[in-house]
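cron nightly-structures :: item 1 of 1
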Amino acid sequence: MSLNVNTFHFDSFDLWTEKMWRFSSPMIVHCENPNAFKGFSKTWELGDLGMTFFSAPPYQAEQTDVELSKAQRKRLVLTIPTSGRCEFNQFGRYVELGPGDAVFHVTRSPMVYTQREPTTAWLISIPLKTALMHVDDPEEICAVLISEATPGFRTLRALLSAMPDDVPNLSDAARDIFVHTSIEMICAIITQMRGDASSRRSQIARQRLRQIKGYIDRHLGDIDLTPTRVADDHSISPRYLHYLFSTEGQTVSKYVLNRRLEESALFITRNKNKKLDAGDVGYRFGFANSVQFRRAFSRKYGTTPSKYLKLTLSAQ
């Protein structure tokens, strides 16, 4: 496995902002005194394992839905401060941490990170798809304090602390083992935290299902509104998405189809256009063609869209 190491000394707040975008994802970054900003970072890129050690004065980084729409990287990031203190806010949870603590965040959900004092910290990232093999919904583990009492964390921290001196001298084969071991240790902590989160899991599931239903309603006109896309846009596994809808006795695809038909029927009723084009209505609500729309509409309402409109007009 190849090793790429990049070291940066920042005497410009703009350069620091650019670095934040490259390592994590697009953010709005604020600093009280940008002209006096001095920072340092060193990044090791080891295949699926990304590691950055940084030092920076007080600042705040915020990810909103606008920034997330530009994001390309799908990562789970573990922040481990070694001096100073920092704060995270994600999924409606707030956590403050200092040396000896850690916290996960995911790069595909809104968050706020704040340093109120000069801080040095490690940022350890792995692909989100790897994390989803051990937790169906990263909300269960993000913005939750990890301390020395968390099983496995002290071992992981000891392993990572040896990395700057040892990894550059390792053979490719030995480096592969180091990376694999580090990722497995992170996944072990994820698994442990998932078990600890069982008491809040049902509440998280209900909130997540409401969010997903709102998302589906906003994207009914998208032909590619598939379960895979819905899961991916919410940073959860497809298996977990299907589980959420199964708690209501339905499938994701069936729910999307029903919502499309309900909204198309409502549109027909409100439109009152005697020259209704079924193809146009179907396309508006995500159907690939008029034949597909007519068949689905007739199965649900027992009549064609045109006859449905006539029935609606005659009843008024």
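cron nightly-structures :: done
DSSP finds 13 helices and eleven strands in the chain.
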